[in-house]
Amino acid sequence: MSTMTFTRMSEFRRPLVIAVLIALACYAPFQLLPFRTFQLAMALVYAVALLGLNLLVGQAGQISLGHGAFFAAGAYTAAVLVDRWDVPHYATLPIAALVAFVLGFALGIPALRLRGLYLALVTLAIAIFTVPLLKRFESVTGGSMGLTLSKPAPPSWSGLAEDQWLYFLALATALLAGLVVGGLGSLWGPLLGGLFVMYVPSLAQDVNQAAPGVVFGLFIIAVMYLAPTGLAGLPGRSAHLFRKGKNNAH
Hints:
Elements: H1 3-27, H2 34-59, H3 67-85, H4 89-108, H5 116-136, H6 138-141, H7 162-182, H8 188-207, H9 212-226, H10 234-249
Helix pairs in contact: 2-7, 2-8, 3-4, 3-5, 8-9
């Protein structure tokens, strides 16, 4: 088989694989328990956040340890608008995105001159400062307990339960964010990261209830060692090592 034919097959196979995976993702909430559906929705939410981090770290090559602060800014903006001013859930999304953007832009301009370790230290300081700041304004943010909100109600015509509707909202947002940032191919790494963040801590809790943080850290170290290019790059790395070993055998 010629290289050109193989390339054409690969180009045809990739959209087909993406279509099948999206179809499976749409089918999943109808077969899972509500709690499992909610977990997948949260994994998609984390994937959207990690997609932004991947844009900064993976593509721009900068180090950021304060990405969670901007995630928190958008989340608390939406939560406060719903809880204090009864703003509809969907109307808070553009406002929350705008607040996170303005905050990131305002802090990013002074940090333009920093690189490497110095940039990492500044972003780490932002992350550390965010937690006590949120606790300080307890009347607005709810302090250590946070804010408890109702889930967005699904439209009556959809026939979906609340967890299913929330899942499809998260899935649509993740797909849209992936297309905007760099195509659906850019979504796989953050999606695997979202699944890792969602499920590995509970797995670590099952392995050792006394020190789940230690087990979680060991999982991260193992991933860094076995997949230095990330979980999304593990199949390509494995294929490369296989071909290399095969060539050495010959």
